[in-house]
# Entry
Amino acid sequence: MLIKCSCGNDEFKAHIGLTGDIIVNGQNNWIGQCGGHTDNNSIYGSSKPFGPYICTVCKKEYDDLEELMERSRCQFCGRFVVKGEDTCPMCLFLNMDICIMCGGKFSIGNTGNELGFCIDCQKSPDFPYDLKKYYEDHDAGLVGFKGFDTMERGILEDYRR
Ligand SMILES: [Zn+2]
Ligand SMILES: [Zn+2]
Ligand SMILES: [Zn+2]
# Structure
């Protein structure tokens, strides 16, 4: 994943811990640098670069490049997810979905069902279908289909109150 500054540039000035070849005395005190102070070749990076990071083009500063990772948000809880995904692992685990009737969020088998309705809608006095009867028929093998598009397929029309 390419991490870019808001200006589109992907190169940053960063910091690194530097190590040089130096001359020490018998007491391990630094008394000089190999090749003299002008020889930069004897100094090399010995750690992972760290921030703050400054864009080499627009000079914008970032404490952490992670904050520039392209991310999306989970449609259910708003947690960050990998770009291109719309549901976080926790919401996948909880079987979260969106109610066909009210647009609210629910968890299949917990606060809603696999037909796409949340319990609130299902319990509402003006819920148009007799789901209990539908489930009874489904269990009895009289209705073959059970899924989010059960209503769209018109299967529930037989169970309209
Ligand atoms: Zn920039
Ligand atoms: Zn989520
Ligand atoms: Zn609902």
About this structure: Residues 12-68 form one domain. The chain has a mean pLDDT of 84. The first strand starts at residue 12 and ends at 15.
